């Protein structure tokens, strides 16, 4: 150690040892001890340790003195001049420039992509927002910059041991070194990877791109590639001929995307992958459906018929598909899912990842060897949409990783009408991927063989390291944003060049014909064969009168529905548990089922409090949640609870994950100790993301109907930043894409006088999007009323509809907010409405007012009613299920109190909360024979005041209104 410290002082930080045995004995220590080339100091030291005679005499003297304790400055003594006759001067000169050659090699690795021939248009718009870079590795004075000159080009230099450009050779002339580096890093492929902080991964990539002769393809591979290019190109041309005035967001300009995806799928199938989930924007979607997923062409073509009775509520270039087929290259089964998604281009990214994670979970694929994801992106969206960053940050988190995603960027060099100079601040649209050390392979999309090679490497990378990788297909967009758009308005120079651009299929076909790989006749026959397939499918498509939804399902649930698409059961069974089950789950919830596990003292008090409640046969919210989760797990239903701080709970009420106070990272999840053969419980704190994580959980819930998947917001208003997922996926998902989903959103809500932030989960937004008609009383039989409502609505359960729960905050510890075990025994059901059970029930005709409410305000109303002594004159009913609205049960209450005023009371402001939703439905219930009055805060822009005193004044004011029996009569 002391010797090593002395050597480090001589040359600075020591670098990787690189053998130099061939001339160590000739090289003097003097030029290296003047502050240069510390790696050679280390090298000489290793050589000296093996054999003191193998190094120059000056090194021998230096190392002997240094080991004896001499400081570095005094350890060196110049030996007698003895090397002139051996050509020492020449050897020293060669060694002197060796580090410069190594720097030249390194710079090609770091900077080669900047000067690679990536842009098919030759205008470099895809590379930088600014002008093309002037790079030293391609400048005329490159040799001078590296301390070299023309005379060095034919000198032979030792290659660094970290490079593979030499193949089996360890030395090469400088001229050959430069040529091989440019072939590896400056042609149709540009590689960004030197930011990766893992030496093994970097060396793996270098080997894939530096080895001589790597990009060689067999005759069969070239012919297959040509056939795939024919299908990709001719599909778009067929659509253009048949429907020239229709928008389809075609792939023209990036036709190599289709063979790129098929190459990734082929290679992944070879590596054992059985299922691939894909997400993509609308550009090229129809082509991907046709030629990658292999959807029936007639089902695609029939959608261009405006007279078709479409069962789906979205345009054709938003729809997805699920298909299981044989991969013809590997002869193995492969399942391909292309997820439906809206025009929010990157919103599908986390949804795909969640569905991938779920499929891996359900088939026990803990390493991602059988199930994987591919995400396609546009260049502008990849750089500009924040959800891309959120999704990348999930990639290595234990509860969210999918063990590597292959990202393919269709880099059109333009976003709608915006060019890169004003669309991003980074050099590339893909720079966001560097945040997770994902390698980025830029490739000229007009070089199909380079595209094919890069995609093979990407698939191998994913299979080897199970980490994300990016393929950047630098291409162009031959038409405007859509086929009706005029791009010359805004990009005249680019589109002048595009009009001159020969198509990639034509260029590649000419190349193969020139090579003799195919004949012109074979090429034309391949085109004619695919054109015939398209024409025959077009003829069949004219017979389609109705779009069959089964052809567009991206997440089918086999066995869950009948043949007609109806649920197998239209009943809502009891959710009650036996006393024994409640007691057992309560015991688990109030104990630590692991030996020698030390918990926090405050948590001990919480568990004792739970045990006391179990003894009293009551549940607060946290214990009630335990009962619900525990019973489902015992029955074999997997539960996944995800979100920010969900393990403990934002309000320190849940504590589903216990932490040993003495052992780091030692945890206990009591819920996984309910029963021997129970389903697993996954509870996981998420990254500080709402958009990405809610999208992820939505995708997870999509994979199976037999699971409970919940996302909890830290506070209810946090869903604001996930609004796209709610508006575009959760609310209309079934109507647009026939997509069933049972995602549950837990949104803490309640105005506790703590300011405008975190008070409101904005219930008005969810209620506004409910598809129920407020002016029509449902015409269902009494027996099926509740269940039929649930089936017809757009979000709620039990038919695997999304469920929105406005969860409590202050009520988590409110002494009155508890339920008896009696409400949870066999035969009990969820109560859509909780009627008043107090003195008002004895003489309902004498009740002057019935106040309908929901949530926390109920406890404030009951307290105020008691204080005013109005328990016999004012009834209070709680509507627990807001949507679908329980018309039938509300009618029971309004009929019971037929002489009473109808009042809706809420703590939220009048333009917020529930009032605008509730009022028309209450009026419909009573057939508009009685008015519906409002008691609550007045309209406001913010959800709540920031002043505690003002909050209390507002509260008392609307309570006065609710209990002033003359308030709505015009009397004093």
TrEMBL record:
<keyword id="KW-0496">Mitochondrion</keyword>
<dbReference type="Pfam" id="PF16078">
    <property type="entry name" value="2-oxogl_dehyd_N"/>
</dbReference>
<keyword id="KW-0809">Transit peptide</keyword>
<dbReference type="InterPro" id="IPR011603">
    <property type="entry name" value="2oxoglutarate_DH_E1"/>
</dbReference>
<protein>
    <recommendedName>
        <fullName>2-oxoglutarate dehydrogenase complex component E1</fullName>
        <ecNumber>1.2.4.2</ecNumber>
    </recommendedName>
</protein>
<dbReference type="GO" id="GO:0046872">
    <property type="term" value="F:metal ion binding"/>
</dbReference>
<dbReference type="InterPro" id="IPR032106">
    <property type="entry name" value="2-oxogl_dehyd_N"/>
</dbReference>
<dbReference type="InterPro" id="IPR031717">
    <property type="entry name" value="ODO-1/KGD_C"/>
</dbReference>
<dbReference type="GO" id="GO:0006096">
    <property type="term" value="P:glycolytic process"/>
</dbReference>
<dbReference type="InterPro" id="IPR042179">
    <property type="entry name" value="KGD_C_sf"/>
</dbReference>
<dbReference type="InterPro" id="IPR001017">
    <property type="entry name" value="DH_E1"/>
</dbReference>
<dbReference type="GO" id="GO:0004591">
    <property type="term" value="F:oxoglutarate dehydrogenase (succinyl-transferring) activity"/>
</dbReference>
<keyword id="KW-0324">Glycolysis</keyword>
<dbReference type="GO" id="GO:0006099">
    <property type="term" value="P:tricarboxylic acid cycle"/>
</dbReference>
<dbReference type="Pfam" id="PF16870">
    <property type="entry name" value="OxoGdeHyase_C"/>
</dbReference>
<dbReference type="GO" id="GO:0045252">
    <property type="term" value="C:oxoglutarate dehydrogenase complex"/>
</dbReference>
<dbReference type="InterPro" id="IPR029061">
    <property type="entry name" value="THDP-binding"/>
</dbReference>
<keyword id="KW-0832">Ubl conjugation</keyword>
<dbReference type="GO" id="GO:0005634">
    <property type="term" value="C:nucleus"/>
</dbReference>
<keyword id="KW-0539">Nucleus</keyword>
<keyword id="KW-0106">Calcium</keyword>
<comment type="function">
    <text>2-oxoglutarate dehydrogenase (E1-like) component of the 2-oxoglutarate dehydrogenase multienzyme complex (OGDHC) which mediates the decarboxylation of alpha-ketoglutarate in the tricarboxylic acid cycle. The OGDHC complex catalyzes the overall conversion of 2-oxoglutarate to succinyl-CoA and CO(2) while reducing NAD(+) to NADH. The OGDHC complex is mainly active in the mitochondrion. Involved in the inhibition of cell proliferation and in apoptosis.</text>
</comment>
<keyword id="KW-1017">Isopeptide bond</keyword>
<dbReference type="Pfam" id="PF02779">
    <property type="entry name" value="Transket_pyr"/>
</dbReference>
<keyword id="KW-0786">Thiamine pyrophosphate</keyword>
<keyword id="KW-0560">Oxidoreductase</keyword>
<feature type="domain" description="Transketolase-like pyrimidine-binding">
    <location>
        <begin position="619"/>
        <end position="814"/>
    </location>
</feature>
<keyword id="KW-0460">Magnesium</keyword>
<dbReference type="GO" id="GO:0030976">
    <property type="term" value="F:thiamine pyrophosphate binding"/>
</dbReference>
<dbReference type="Pfam" id="PF00676">
    <property type="entry name" value="E1_dh"/>
</dbReference>
<dbReference type="InterPro" id="IPR005475">
    <property type="entry name" value="Transketolase-like_Pyr-bd"/>
</dbReference>
<dbReference type="GO" id="GO:0005759">
    <property type="term" value="C:mitochondrial matrix"/>
</dbReference>
<keyword id="KW-0479">Metal-binding</keyword>
<comment type="similarity">
    <text>Belongs to the alpha-ketoglutarate dehydrogenase family.</text>
</comment>
């Amino acid at each position: 150690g002391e010797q090593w410290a002395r050597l480090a002082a001589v040359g600075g930080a020591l670098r990787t040892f690189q053998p130099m045995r061939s001339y160590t004995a000739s090289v003097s220590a003097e030029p290296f001890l003047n502050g240069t080339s510390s790696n050679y100091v280390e090298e000489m030291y290793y050589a000296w340790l093996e054999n003191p005679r193998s190094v120059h005499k000056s090194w021998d003297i230096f190392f002997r003195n240094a080991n004896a304790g001499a400081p570095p400055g005094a350890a060196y003594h110049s030996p007698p001049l003895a090397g002139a006759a051996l050509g020492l001067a020449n050897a020293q000169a060669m060694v002197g420039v060796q580090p410069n050659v190594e720097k030249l090699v390194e710079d090609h690795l770091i900077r080669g992509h900047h000067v690679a021939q990536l842009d098919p248009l030759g205008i470099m718009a895809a590379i930088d927002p600014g002008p093309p870079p002037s790079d030293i590795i391609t400048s005329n004075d490159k040799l001078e910059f590296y301390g070299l000159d023309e005379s060095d080009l034919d000198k032979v230099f030792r290659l660094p041991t970290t490079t593979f450009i030499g193949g089996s050779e360890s030395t090469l002339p400088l001229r050959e070194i430069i040529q091989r580096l440019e072939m590896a890093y400056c042609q149709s492929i540009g590689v960004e990877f030197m930011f990766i902080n893992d030496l093994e991964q970097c060396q793996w990539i270098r080997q894939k791109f530096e080895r001589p002769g790597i990009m060689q393809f067999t005759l069969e591979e070239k012919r297959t590639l040509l056939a795939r290019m024919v299908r990709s190109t001719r599909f778009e041309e067929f659509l253009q001929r048949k429907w020239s005035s229709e928008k389809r967001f075609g792939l023209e300009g990036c036709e190599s995307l289709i063979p790129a995806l098929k190459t990734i799928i082929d290679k992944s199938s070879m590596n054992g992958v059985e299922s691939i989930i894909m997400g993509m924007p609308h550009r090229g979607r129809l082509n991907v459906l046709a030629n990658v997923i292999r959807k029936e062409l007639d089902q695609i073509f029939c959608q261009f018929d405006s007279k078709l009775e479409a069962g789906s509520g979205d345009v054709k270039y938003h729809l997805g598909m699920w298909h299981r087929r044989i991969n013809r290259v590997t002869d193995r089964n492969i399942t391909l899912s292309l997820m439906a998604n809206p025009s929010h281009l990157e919103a599908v990214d986390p949804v795909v990842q969640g569905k991938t994670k779920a499929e891996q979970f359900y088939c026990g694929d803990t390493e991602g060897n059988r199930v994987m994801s591919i995400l396609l992106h546009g260049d502008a969206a990849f750089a500009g949409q924040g959800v891309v960053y959120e999704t990348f940050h999930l990639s290595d988190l234990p509860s969210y990783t999918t063990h590597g995603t292959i990202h393919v960027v269709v880099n059109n060099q333009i976003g709608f009408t915006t060019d890169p100079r004003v669309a991003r601040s980074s050099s590339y649209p893909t720079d966001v991927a560097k945040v997770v050390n994902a390698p980025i392979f830029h490739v000229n999309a007009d070089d199909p063989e380079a595209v094919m090679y890069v995609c093979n490497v990407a698939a191998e990378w994913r299979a080897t390291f199970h980490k994300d990788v990016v393929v950047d297909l630098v291409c162009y967009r031959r038409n405007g944003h859509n086929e009706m758009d005029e791009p010359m308005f805004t990009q005249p120079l680019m589109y002048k060049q595009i009009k001159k651009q020969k198509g990639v299929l034509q260029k590649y076909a000419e190349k193969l014909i020139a090579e003799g790989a195919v004949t012109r006749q074979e090429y034309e026959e391949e085109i004619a064969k695919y054109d015939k397939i398209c024409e025959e499918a077009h003829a069949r498509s004219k017979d389609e009168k109705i779009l069959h939804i089964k052809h567009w399902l991206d997440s089918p649930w086999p066995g869950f529905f009948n043949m007609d698409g109806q649920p197998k059961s239209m009943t809502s069974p009891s959710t009650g548990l036996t006393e024994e089950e409640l007691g057992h789950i309560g015991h688990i919830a109030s104990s630590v089922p692991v030996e020698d596990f030390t918990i926090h003292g405050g948590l001990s008090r919480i568990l004792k409090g739970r045990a006391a409640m179990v003894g009293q046969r009551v549940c607060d919210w946290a214990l009630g949640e335990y009962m619900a989760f525990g019973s489902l797990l015992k029955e074999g239903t997997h539960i996944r609870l995800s979100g920010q701080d969900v393990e403990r709970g934002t309000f320190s009420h849940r504590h589903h994950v216990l932490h040993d106070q003495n052992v780091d990272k030692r945890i206990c999840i009591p819920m996984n100790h309910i029963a021997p053969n129970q389903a697993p419980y996954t509870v996981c704190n998420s990254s500080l993301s709402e958009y990405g994580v809610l999208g992820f959980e939505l995708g997870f819930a999509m994979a199976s109907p037999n699971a409970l998947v919940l996302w909890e917001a830290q506070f209810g208003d946090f869903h604001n930043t996930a609004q796209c997922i709610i508006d575009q996926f959760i609310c209309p998902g079934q109507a647009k894409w026939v997509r069933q989903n049972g995602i549950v959103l837990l949104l803490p809500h309640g105005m506790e006088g703590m300011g405008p932030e975190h008070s409101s989960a904005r219930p008005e937004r969810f209620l506004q999007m409910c598809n129920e008609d407020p002016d029509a009383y449902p015409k269902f039989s009494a027996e099926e009323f509740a269940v039929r409502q649930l089936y017809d609505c757009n979000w709620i359960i039990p038919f695997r509809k999304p469920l929105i729960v406005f969860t409590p905050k202050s009520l988590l510890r409110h002494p009155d907010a508890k339920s008896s075990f009696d409400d949870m025994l066999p035969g009990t059901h969820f109560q859509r409405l909780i009627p008043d059970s107090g003195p008002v029930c004895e003489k309902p005709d004498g009740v002057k007012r019935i106040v309908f409410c929901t949530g926390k305000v109920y406890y404030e109303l009951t307290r105020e009613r008691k204080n005013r002594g109005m328990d016999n004159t004012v009834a209070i009913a709680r509507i627990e299920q807001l949507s679908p609205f329980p018309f039938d049960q509300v009618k029971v209450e309004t009929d019971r109190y037929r002489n009473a005023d109808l009042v809706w009371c809420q703590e939220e402001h009048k333009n917020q909360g529930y009032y605008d939703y509730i009022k028309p439905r209450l009026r419909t219930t009573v057939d508009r024979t009685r008015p519906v009055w409002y008691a609550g805060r007045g309209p406001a822009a913010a959800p709540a005041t920031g002043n505690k005193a003002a909050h209390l004044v507002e509260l008392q004011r609307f309570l006065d209104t609710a209990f002033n029996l003359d308030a709505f009569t015009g009397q004093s």
